[in-house]
Amino acid sequence: xxxxxxxxxxxxxxxxxxxxxxxxxxxxxxxxxxSVSGQDPQFSQFYANPLYLGPSFAGGVEGSRLSTQYRNQxxxxxxxxxxxxxxxxxxxxxxxxxxxxxxxxDVAGTSKLGYFQxxxxxxxxxxxxxVWYVRPGISFSYIQQGIYGKLTFIDQVLGNGYTxxxxxxxxxxxxxxxxxxxxxYTNGFWLGGTVDHLLQPDVGLHNTEAVVPLKTSIYxxxxxxxxxxxxxxxxxxxxxxxxxxxxxxxxxxDLGVYWYNYPIIxxxxxxxxxVLNSPRGDAIVFLAGIKVRHFxxxxxxxxxISSLLPYTRGSHEISATYKFLLPQRKKKGGxxxxxx
Length: 340
Prior knowledge:
The chain is mainly beta and 340 residues long. It has one domain: Porin, CATH 2.40.160.40. It is built from six helices and 15 strands. Strands 1-2-3-4-6-7-8-9-10-11-12-13-14-15 form a 14-stranded antiparallel β-barrel. The radius of gyration is 23 Å and the shape is globular. 31% of the residues are buried.
């Protein structure tokens, strides 16, 4: 048999790089879809996305609220993780109830491995005694995960005239889910917890089971307001807050502080568990924003401090919230937590 020429058996250098890159993306997409140890999409300004944090925050204002967020995680990497969020909630004072709906869309990689979630949230406000309230909440959601980009296979890259199509079972996975939460609060203090993925949805692709594990979140904080002249409250407020999350073996702790003096708000967060994670932690987060009665907008930057620093650079996040508030009366629905 005649020996093939070198040019027929070896790809050109440029074409070989393209082949390797596209093949790696396919492997990464399938691996991520089969992995059950990864975390859900996350936000540094988690209080700007209250329904994603817990259904107890549904109707957490005296009126209605529109919230949106954009996050570009590890922006310096090719085809980084980009997450979008949108939510709307309303407090029905007559029924002591809050209702909301949210949408989350997370896309990563050149093959656009995507995660989409939309949920309905309900909370009920109960007065315990004096100025203390407890707020249970429940949510039901629809989850979809799939590959939304164009997959290119080896035989297509070789250009031998044969075109392959991905297995239909690889395209998308759909399931339903539920979550519950409990929040206790009073003026200037709150403490709560959420359990997500109670139904443990299956988002596996390629006929492989990939059950999303339970995620537990515990959060809380306290406001410290400086006294103004003649013992009147000042607009100068310092807020200390935390968020602890655990999903299977992954644990994460966020500790932060906000300083607010109308209309400027500044914040600083530390993320990590040095004993369980890297020695330095994961990231430090810087926040700056503007907050007025009906509207607030914030920008934050995650500066990576772990060993991933040379590869990830950091993450950008922008949030905006608009509130359709009722006339100021004795508040029952408002939850005294940050909005960033």
